[in-house]
Amino acid sequence: MHELKHLSQSELLSQTKVAIQNERKATAQILLCFREIESRLLYAEVGFSSLHEMAVKYFGYSEGAAHRRISTMRLIKDVPTVAVAIEAGDLSLSVASTVQNFLRAEARQNKKVYSLNEKNELVNSMKHKSKAECERDLRKISPLLIRPEKERPICDEFTQITFQANKKLLENLHQLKGRLAHRTGSDSSYAKLFMVMSEMVLAQIDRTPNPGLHKNSVARPAKETVISPSHGIVDKTISQNELKSSILSQTSFARQTSPERLLSGATATRSFSRAVQRMVWKRSGGQCEFVAEGDVGAGRRRCASKWQLEFDHLKPFARGGESIAENARLLCRVHNQFVAKDWSLL
Ligand SMILES: [Zn+2]
Hints:
By secondary structure, the chain is of the alpha+beta class. It has 3 domains: about 1-140, no CATH class; about 165-205, no CATH class; about 220-340, no CATH class. The protein is built from 16 helices and 8 strands. The strands form 4 sheets. A two-stranded antiparallel ribbon has the order 1-2. A two-stranded antiparallel ribbon has the order 3-4. The protein has a two-stranded antiparallel ribbon with strand order 5-6. α1 packs antiparallel against α5. The longest helix has about 30 residues, at about 10-40. Mean pLDDT is about 80; it is low at about 210-265. Zinc ion binds near residues 49 and 332.
């Protein structure tokens, strides 16, 4: 830095330009590295439940910086010229990630899927624009564009959560404010409403009989391998509710036996008993039990995810693994699929 003080004005400007070019080149390279890490599921292998978590906790990016890079990387998958545009300084990361968020929102909310040509054209039209200009142009295409939800820590105690509610949700929240007024008291804020609602829902969940499964996401489907009596091993996507009822009621799926078991004459179920589930849940602390084989820094990493947890056989049931606590582990969905890939079951 001391040497910079002795540079002339033109030398300082030219040195800054070179540094910025190097920064853009490095950014484009990082995006390609992220793409390769994702395609290899390397983040899962080293103990993270997502590339975003790895980008923040391992590579040291802020939440926002990680999000912008990962969104841009996903855009590059469809529009490879984005990497070139980033490197040339024609497109900023914030504009590229805004375009990617827009395309995702269009697909999810408006069921509108853009062709590769349309994506290319959209990206080209955003070159040399600021994020504000980009957002303004995107709203002309789709005024209902939803901005991504944000969590911004304010201090140890408070976090600002920003999201957009559609008309239906707003109506529901207004109704709930009225109906729960006896619980929220004089505080009519959304924060108080969400606190009261969260406590009510958690109390309701805690009254349900199965402590293992109810803490999982029940709204999203989980991948579960089941045994078909006539076709061997097949994959079936079932919801957590179906999985729960399957386990609780010991359905015909659950009663099927593997070829090895049929040969040995043994009988067993692929589901874990509720006692085993409770034991595993307690042992795991309600957290994914995947531990990375390799050490990528601070020891072998155990996954920190408490999201979409599923009970898994260490040795797959289809390969003769027993449905006992010693052969059971709790895995997040990412790691359940990751280990299943290793067993060639997916
Ligand atoms: Zn995990």
